[in-house]
């Protein structure tokens, strides 16, 4: 609103106030006594009604700022001013700072034990005049000063409570206040709490007192009475009109603030859902052909937040918001109407984009590619270079397919986003109906895996490793398997990635190590001659990240079962080593010095350099099975394997070929000087109780390697 509009409104208010004061003065001229009494009553009731309306409006505006999900999670006194509490209370504190009249802003709920505080926007550590803390604790009992008003706002448990406000000021040790209460409801329309606003009543009392004092002037001579009362009414009405205008402006500003994200300035979840609902209605009524929703979740954001700090994380989110606006071409953020494109921050590192009438440059997949391209360059945050790409889920909706709700559309976009993460991150995936089934199976596997560890569903199989020089089966690799009671046999290629994603891989790895070590002890006790010399166990990225904790676990496990370190080997993939080369090197050196053997798994599929490979204390390099696929038909593949085996030998390490399936592959590996081999040609993985028989029966299946060298 510019200065001209302000002056026009003020002039209109003055004219209205003058006209009303003249009218009232004429009436008072007829009945002076009635006029005095009427002014007394009118001024008192008007001030009270205006102030109660103001209080209710503040409470209702504040209720829209409460996040139902965060609010429902706050029930413990120990949560006071923790991270979840601060995120939940911050919008209320912003409102408290924006409206100086507000002294206290808080929420409370009712349970069988009574009424309890949950949120309190008072500053932590602040105290009242008698030294009592200003801020109420989480789940602290609330002693209402107006039980009837509180009961009205809480409702009866079936119907949502009603907003209300006190009619007169209440004074206690914290001051003199008037309070407004309003119910807080979630997205499904269920009441979850009541929010209270305590406003300093001094302005109200001063206005009320002044109004009453002016009314008493009616006892003066009639002429002076008419003039004074007319003037008083004019001033009161003018002030009332100005207050109403200011209050409406403030309410409009609060509503706008309730629809914007305080960190990025983008529309928030509430604003996005409102616009999505409107788009749904337009499509269903044929006013719009279609729309699309893009769900963005940023990869590695939590890692950046944890390593660089929350301020750096907030700055990264602001930079992301600016890039999205530039990529989309949105300079001025809008939250209502039929914008072509609406960008919203849903919370955390989740952003949603609504595209109305997607076509041409705004076709969802091309649009997503443009967004990903804008997010690809390096971010500069807190003096550090940061890379963070997004995974994007896409849902389109037209007149034929628009049968689901706005919440379901967002949920489907979220499902597609997780498919994009599983597809390799930094890409976009369009939602299809089959994704729900895959997600349901994914969730079921993750839930069941938590219960499967240690209850007999997981078991180990062991595959022999053959010395091609002697033909002897001298070692085994431990492979985890899972037979679910209802889903049947679940492939490791399915449940291992889920375990890694959920963090369960650490517990699974611990169980595998313990079971493999116990099996080795049993074999060595039953038949030392046929028992393998060592068992190999795979290490995951999460286990490597444990560092010294992993070393202590290995040391304690071997000591507990009585197994020498030389009987255990750990296999680490090339990719996992290269995620943090220095930390991995320190851990591997610690393990190697302890006495365990080390093998690099899947060599040739990663990105390690020869210099780094030489620096690591590996005993064995396992050549990936993909190298053997065309070894008997392709001279190029044969040359690569020969060079690889020669490189490993020159590094004074042992070569081990994985995935050997045919006798011809064995002959070629022997001729190239490969030391060890492993695969179904020698033996499929077997359970522990059959391993000794397999080690015995398979002896001699591969003939010893005879090396023939030409004389120089």
Describe the structure.
This protein is an alpha/beta fold and 712 residues long. A hairpin with a 2-residue loop joins strand 10 and strand 11 (384-386). The strands form 4 sheets. It has an 8-stranded mixed barrel with strand order 14-15-17-18-19-20-21-22, surrounded by 4 helices. Strands 1, 2, 3, 4, 5 and 6 form a 6-stranded antiparallel sheet that branches. The longest helix has 37 residues, at 222-258. It folds into 3 domains: 13-258, PAS domain (Beta-Lactamase); 269-432, Alpha-Beta Plaits, CATH 3.30.70; 445-697, EAL domain (TIM Barrel, Alpha-Beta Barrel). It is elongated and about 130 Å long.
Identify the notable features of this structure and list them briefly.
TIM Barrel; 20% strand; Beta-Lactamase; 49% helix; eight-stranded mixed beta barrel; six-stranded antiparallel beta sheet; 712 residues; disordered C terminus; elongated; Alpha-Beta Plaits; 3 domains; alpha/beta
What does this entry show, briefly?
The protein has 23 helices and 23 strands. The protein is an alpha/beta fold and 712 residues long.
Secondary structure topology:
Blueprint: H1 3-30, H2 32-63, H3 68-73, H4 83-98, E1 102-111, E2 114-120, H5 147-154, E3 164-165, E4 170-172, E5 175-185, E6 191-200, H6 202-216, H7 222-258, H8 269-284, E7 290-298, H9 301-308, H10 310-328, E8 341-347, E9 350-356, H11 364-375, E10 379-381, E11 384-386, E12 390-398, H12 406-422, E13 428-430, H13 434-452, E14 458-467, E15 472-484, E16 488-490, H14 492-502, H15 505-526, E17 534-539, H16 541-544, H17 548-561, E18 568-573, H18 574-579, H19 581-594, E19 597-603, H20 610-615, E20 620-623, H21 635-650, E21 654-657, H22 663-672, E22 676-677, E23 686-687, H23 688-697
Parallel strand pairs: 12-13, 15-17, 17-18, 18-19, 19-20, 20-21, 21-22
Antiparallel strand pairs: 1-2, 1-6, 3-5, 4-5, 5-6, 7-9, 7-12, 8-9, 10-11, 14-15, 14-22, 14-23, 15-16
Helix pairs in contact: 1-2, 1-7, 2-6, 2-7, 9-10, 10-11, 13-14, 15-17, 17-19
